[in-house]
Each structure stands twice: as structure tokens, then as C-alpha cells.
Design goal:
The N terminus and C terminus are likely disordered. Helix content is about 65%, strand content about 5%. It is built from 25 helices and 5 strands. It is a multi-pass membrane protein. It comes from Steinernema hermaphroditum.
Length: about 550
């Protein structure tokens, strides 16, 4: 159990601190991890470490989904046929009719020997009219996550975080391994879809589990290990690509280490928040025993329940109905519903910008590796900067500033189209701000949502947010209108999202809201509808108690 004295700040006690005091508190916060108990620290590390697998399974598509080099050549160079190749996809036969080189009797597609098995396009002939099918492999992965997110989060609130984290994790590992040995492209797409279901599933539940596994003061440091893990997986793909030309061996190499997660069955603990709200006394007692042994401080279950400052204790004082909340409860509260819609839009924009910049990062420079590796590397200092900013400023402030700065960088990139150093620097700068936003905004999202509906809320946001991920691989299509169109669209959406964040409440240093009656509707809603929010809460609770 986190020490009660470490969580003594209640919303009513928060004051505006002087800059030096803020810096002092930021420094002391970095030591908070020393006070975490064994189970919570283990959950924090395990749920973050696996993010390397998530990054690798997505970023591999930057290389294996690229259009291969090819040409249309005669099958028999010595033949005297009058047919000829009009271009690398089309053949004009002896009767002056055009046909695809893929189906020609006299011509065939030729790939350079070094790339025959380097990409999906080369091995499965995803070229010419079928070129777009290579991009589908990324989108279908995101689609799988979009489908499962709201379902899995609902199950997680009902049956616990642990198994709804582990099962998708193992499904993702097995599916990715099968992808590497898929005999045809249809099989590859099917298991790529399943891999997306598992990957987005364990990532979503893992974030909530991670948030519920640390103290109030430690939450600002949540992104630190996750960022390191993500960048490791991101960069690993690039370095492995330099050594492994075969897409199958590359995919297998990044997937097979996932088998080590079998050990998570014995290592990953259940969320204390979930156990408390569902009155899992046996699990709570086991947790307290481990915590007391590590911290060398005896703490009984009754002591925790009587503590006014213990965050988990706040949950036990809520109504029993809190454990039975569903999507319909969110729909009954207009304030919460409005924030849900805002968060869905913000998440869609964040996904579109991140994947738009990442998946096409190999096109930032003349050699594909420089742009790719730099795009991944900048996330590391961005993550460290985010941790520093989050210990000093509020979640809402950091999120809004990052989104608006991201919009400015993308807008500036519009002025420098093409492959040049200025354009690359501006897009990398946008990636830095996007990474900061990814450290702050999910934290704000998770902290503003009540525990009783947090996974449902987070799941819906994740579901709708994947629209941005699914659309990102097709941003290149906008270049047919104008080469600057993708950057301009992303800049405009980022600016709107930055303003939308300002409608959210500030959550830094506050105890997680246990149930709907603890929800903070934010400054804008409270200003225009001060009475409406309280009436919604009373009516919702009354209706729920009558069931």
C-alpha cells in the first residue's frame, strides 16, 4: 500500500506554489518510487516493458510494406515477339492490346535478387493495381484494436485487469509469430488483424493497470519507463533491418521474444483499485502482507479502510453499485459524455499525427534509415522532457501546449515541401511535441475518468481514437492533390485538439475519482452549467439505487 502520508493532498488543499517550491517538489517526486510496494512496482515495470513489442510489431511495416523496386521484362530474352512493355506494369501485345505484366504470356515482373524476399510487395506481388494492399496490413492491425478496445475494457471492469491484460498479450505474441510464416497474403492479413486485437488490447489495459499501480505523486513519472521501452522496440526494428533483409526473418526475430511473457502469469499482480472496488478481500490481504514486508511497516486492512488519505479507501466508501457501472451510466451524465466526445477527437488526432510521422519516417531522408532512426530517437528526450514538465505543470497545460506546438511545427513544414533538412527538422520537432502529448494526455484521460467506469471510458476513447491510426497509412493519398496537403490537414486538426484539451479539468495531485459523483466536469462546464452537473449526479444515483 502506498504510504498514506505520501497522498495527503486532497483537491481542496491544492494551492499555487512558487516556482522554486515546484522545482523542489519535482526533485523529491523522482524519489517516490522508493516507497512503492513490491506488487505495484512490479505491475508498473511489467506493463511498461512490453511496450517494446507493441512498437516493433507496428513499426516493422515501415520497411516490409514499402513498394519494392521492379520492372517488366520478357520471359524469354531471345524471343522475337512484337509485344513490348509500355511501363513496368503494362504490356502491349502483338494485337496492340494492353494487358497487365502480371498476367502476360510473354512478360513477367522482375525483382532485383536482393529484394525478392525483402518486402510483402515483392513476395506476394502487391504491385501495380494491387499496391494498396500492402498498406492494408497496417490499417487492419489498427482496425483489430479498434474492434476489441471497448469490449475488452468492459470485461476488465467486470473480471479484473490481470487476465484481460495477459490473454490479449499472448494472443498478440502467437499471432505475430504466425504472420512471419504465413503461406499467403490472406493468411497474413487475418493474423495481422488478430495481432492488432491482442496488441491494442494489452496496451490499453496495461496503461490503466499501470496508472492504478502507482501513487498520486508518482503518476507524473509513469511515461518514463514506457517511453524507453517503446523507443527500444522502435529503434530495434531499424537496426535489425540493417542485418536482416528477409521480411519473414525480421518479423520472426521481433516476435519470438514475446514468448518470454509466459512468465507474466506468475509475475503480474491484479490491480489493487479493482480488488478494492470489488471487495476482493483475499487479494487485498495478500497485497497488504507483501507491502508491509517490503516497507517494514505493518498496515492492516482495517487501517486502510479508516484512513481518510488512502486513495484506495475512498473507493470503499462509494456505493456498491459502483462495481456494476456500464456504458449506459456514462450516457446518463451529459458532462461526462461531452468530455468523452472531446477525448475521442483528441485521441484520433494524436494517433493520426504519430503514425503519419512514424510510418513514413523512412521517407524523410534520401537514405531510409537516417529519417527512421532519428524519428524514433527523438521520442526519448521528448519522454524525459515530458516527465520534467509533468512534475512542474498540470496535465492539461502540458497537453494543450504540446498539441498547439505540434500544430505550429506541422504548419511550418508546409512551407518546405519535399525531402530537405528543414522539412525533416520541422517534422521531427512535431514528433517531439507529439511524444510529449502522448505522455501527458493519456494520463489526463485516465485521471479524469471515475474508477468505476475508467476502463469503459478509456476503451471507447481508444476505439474511436483508432480512426486516426487506421487513416494514417493513407495520408499519402492526399499528396495527389498537393504535396503539402497531409501536413496542412494534420496542423489544422492539431490546433483544434489543443483547444479542446482546455475544456478538461486539471487532475494533477488529485485522488482518482472513485465513482460518477466524484467526477470533475472541468472549468468550462462548471462555469456554464454549475447546477446541471450536480443534478445529473443526484438523478443518476437515485435511478441507480432503484434498480
Amino acid at each position: 500500500m502506498d504510504h498514506p502520508e505520501d497522498e495527503s493532498n486532497s483537491p481542496n488543499e491544492l494551492t499555487i506554489e512558487e516556482p522554486m517550491n515546484r522545482l523542489s517538489r519535482a526533485a523529491s517526486t523522482t524519489l517516490t518510487y522508493l516507497h512503492l510496494d513490491a506488487d505495484k512496482m512490479l505491475a508498473y515495470l511489467l506493463s511498461n516493458a512490453i511496450m517494446a513489442c507493441h512498437a516493433a510489431s507496428v513499426m516493422i511495416m515501415s520497411f516490409i510494406a514499402k513498394e519494392p523496386k521492379y520492372s517488366c521484362v520478357p520471359k524469354d530474352a531471345s524471343s522475337n515477339t512484337s509485344a513490348f512493355a509500355l511501363n513496368r506494369c503494362t504490356v502491349v501485345d502483338a494485337a496492340n492490346r494492353t494487358e497487365s505484366c502480371l498476367h502476360s504470356a510473354d512478360f513477367h515482373i522482375h525483382y532485383p535478387p536482393d529484394i525478392v524476399h525483402a518486402t510483402l510487395g515483392a513476395e506476394f506481388n502487391l504491385i501495380c493495381d494491387d499496391e494498396h494492399w500492402a498498406s492494408h496490413a497496417t490499417s487492419i492491425f489498427m482496425l483489430g484494436g479498434m474492434i476489441i478496445a471497448p469490449i475488452l475494457t468492459q470485461l476488465s471492469d467486470r473480471y479484473g485487469r490481470r487476465y484481460t491484460f495477459l490473454i490479449p498479450l499472448w494472443v498478440a505474441v502467437i499471432s505475430n509469430i504466425v504472420c512471419s510464416i504465413a503461406p499467403d497474403y490472406t493468411t497474413f492479413l487475418v493474423f495481422r488483424l488478430i495481432a492488432g486485437v491482442g496488441t491494442v488490447g494489452f496496451s490499453t489495459i496495461g496503461w490503466v493497470l499501470c496508472l492504478e499501480s502507482v501513487s498520486v505523486e508518482f503518476r507524473s513519472l509513469i511515461p518514463f519507463v514506457g517511453t524507453i521501452s517503446w523507443v527500444l522496440g522502435y529503434e530495434l526494428v531499424g537496426f535489425l533491418r540493417m542485418a536482416i533483409s528477409s521480411w519473414r526473418w525480421l518479423y520472426f526475430t521481433i516476435s519470438v521474444p514475446g514468448l518470454l511473457t509466459v512468465s507474466y502469469y506468475w509475475l503480474m499482480p491484479e490491480s489493487l483499485h479493482w480488488m478494492v472496488i470489488h471487495n476482493k478481500t483475499k487479494g487485498i490481504s495478500k497485497y497488504l502482507k507483501n507491502s508491509s514486508r517490503l516497507n517494514k511497516k505493518e498496515l492492516a486492512l482495517d487501517q486502510c479502510r479508516s484512513s481518510e488519505d488512502c486513495e484506495e479507501a475512498q473507493l470503499t466508501r462509494g456505493p456498491n453499485e459502483a462495481a456494476k457501472r456500464t456504458l449506459f451510466d456514462i450516457l446518463k451524465f451529459p458532462a461526462l459524455l461531452v468530455h468523452l466526445l472531446f477525448q475521442c477527437f483528441i485521441m484520433s488526432v494524436m494517433n493520426a499525427v504519430y503514425w503519419g510521422l512514424s510510418l513514413f519516417s523512412s521517407d524523410l531522408s534520401e537514405d531510409e534509415m537516417s529519417g527512421y532512426l532519428l524519428s524514433g530517437f527523438v521520442e526519448l528526450p521528448a519522454g524525459m522532457l515530458a516527465v520534467f514538465l509533468l512534475t512542474i505543470f498540470g496535465r492539461r497545460t502540458v497537453s494543450a501546449a504540446a498539441l498547439l506546438a505540434q500544430a505550429s511545427s506541422m504548419a511550418a513544414a508546409v512551407l518546405y515541401p519535399g525531402r530537405n533538412w528543414t522539412s525533416m527538422v520541422l517534422q521531427l520537432l512535431a514528433k517531439v511535441f507529439n511524444s510529449i502529448c502522448w505522455a501527458a494526455q493519456p494520463l489526463l484521460l485516465a485521471e479524469l475518468s471515475p474508477t468505476s467506469v475508467r476502463n469503459i471510458f478509456y476503451g471507447i476513447v481508444g476505439f474511436v481514437g483508432e480512426i486516426g491510426s487506421i487513416g494514417a497509412p493513407y495520408l499519402d493519398i492526399l499528396k495527389r492533390l498537393d504535396e503539402r496537403a497531409p501536413a496542412l490537414v494534420l496542423a489544422l486538426l492539431s490546433a483544434i485538439a489543443g483547444v479542446a484539451v482546455l475544456f478538461a479539468p486539471e487532475t494533477k495531485g488529485k485522488i482518482l475519482p472513485a465513482d460518477l459523483n466524484d467526477f470533475d466536469a472541468g472549468p468550462v462546464w462548471n462555469y456554464f452549467f454549475p447546477k446541471k452537473a450536480h443534478e445529473d449526479i443526484r438523478n443518476g444515483e437515485a435511478g441507480h439505487s432503484q434498480k
